[in-house]
Design a protein that fits this description.
Blueprint: H1 3-19, H2 26-33, H3 37-43, H4 47-71, H5 76-92, H6 98-104, H7 111-137, H8 147-167, H9 170-185
Helix pairs in contact: 1-2, 2-3, 4-7, 5-7, 5-8, 5-9, 7-8, 8-9
């Protein structure tokens, strides 16, 4: 991937996480990267092309990060706390989860972008489900429903709590809420 393309994606990701897809513009990106808008259009002819690439990159980078947490040694509750820590780090930087931020603008995205968004969520749920499976097997977590349903609920909780905490309560309230949720799941 070219250096300019990477810079465009980095700036676009930051903007989507801080102001949202619809508030992000090629003008914002061109000013931050120091290139003309035409150069951005060369790499990403339409905004939806940029959003699609951001989602695909997110699947790779965050997917690897989540997998590393899930595959390391430790108890299921410890892993849930580490997964929550990823969302806390975003909050500390005043950034929302990329998938969560893009989800808020879903109704303005084309169908193919929505499909990539759904795939990103499914992939994350699948990774998180591994922790719930571990917790079910070693009796460290109380789970109703399937591992995937528990993982979906936990992901939704993290995204929603991050959004609310950014507006009210900050990382302190996020951490308290995450700890309450995890303790409620622990056996």
């Amino acid at each position: 991937m070219s250096d300019t393309r990477t810079k465009i994606l980095d700036v676009a990701e930051d903007l989507v996480q801080t102001v949202g897809v619809n508030a992000m513009s090629y003008k914002h990106i061109s000013e931050a990267v120091g290139i003309r808008k035409a150069s951005i259009h060369h790499h990403f002819p339409k905004k939806e092309d940029l959003v699609d690439e951001l989602l695909k990159r997110c699947q790779t980078t965050y997917g690897e990060n989540y997998r590393a947490i899930v595959n390391e040694d430790g108890t299921a509750p410890e892993k849930l706390r580490k997964l929550a820590g990823v969302f806390e780090q975003g909050l500390l930087q005043n950034k929302l989860c990329l998938v969560g931020s893009i989800s808020t603008d879903k109704n303005t995205l084309p169908a193919h972008s929505c499909d990539i968004l759904k795939d990103s969520i499914k992939m994350t749920v699948s990774i998180f489900a591994t922790v719930f499976s571990q917790g079910r097997e070693d009796n460290s977590l109380r789970i109703s429903g399937t591992d995937e349903e528990a993982a979906y609920t936990f992901l939704s909780f993290l995204v929603g709590t991050q959004i609310v905490a950014r507006s009210h309560g900050g990382d302190d309230m996020f951490n308290k809420a995450a700890e309450i949720m995890i303790k409620a799941l622990e056996c």
